[in-house]
Design a protein that fits this description.
The protein is an all-alpha fold and about 110 residues long. About 85% of the residues lie in helices and about 0% in strands. α1 (about 5-25) packs antiparallel against α2 (about 30-50).
Length: about 110
């Protein structure tokens, strides 16, 4: 039984959303990025819950492979934008924690 058209349509929707995730990451629009990631996760869960037949028509399998490769490329670009921001947040939070520890240790700020 070939891959159901509904499944390939889900892959196409996921690919379109991953492209929008790249745009959101480029714009530093973290709220939109999170919303889009949740939408992709919902579609991924739909695929996971459906039984997928690995024996599919070659053209459908090729389309699926292309879509997955595009999503992986989009994911890599999203990471280029999010990882520096996450590192900045981590440093900020670590610095705040260290400051509170120093303030507590030396009785400052109280």
């Amino acid at each position: 039984m070939p891959l159901m058209p509904a499944q390939i349509e889900i892959y196409e929707q996921m690919c379109a959303l991953s492209n929008r995730m790249v745009e959101a990451a480029r714009d530093n629009d973290w709220g939109r990025l999170i919303d889009l990631e949740h939408a992709v996760a919902g579609l991924r869960n739909t695929l996971t819950n459906e039984a997928e037949n690995t024996a599919s028509e070659p053209d459908v399998a090729e389309r699926k492979r292309d879509l997955i490769q595009r999503m992986l490329k989009d994911d890599a670009e999203v990471r280029l934008h999010t990882e520096p921001w996450m590192e900045h947040v981590r440093c900020f939070l670590t610095g705040s924690t260290q400051k509170r520890q120093v303030d507590r240790a030396y009785g400052a700020g109280g």
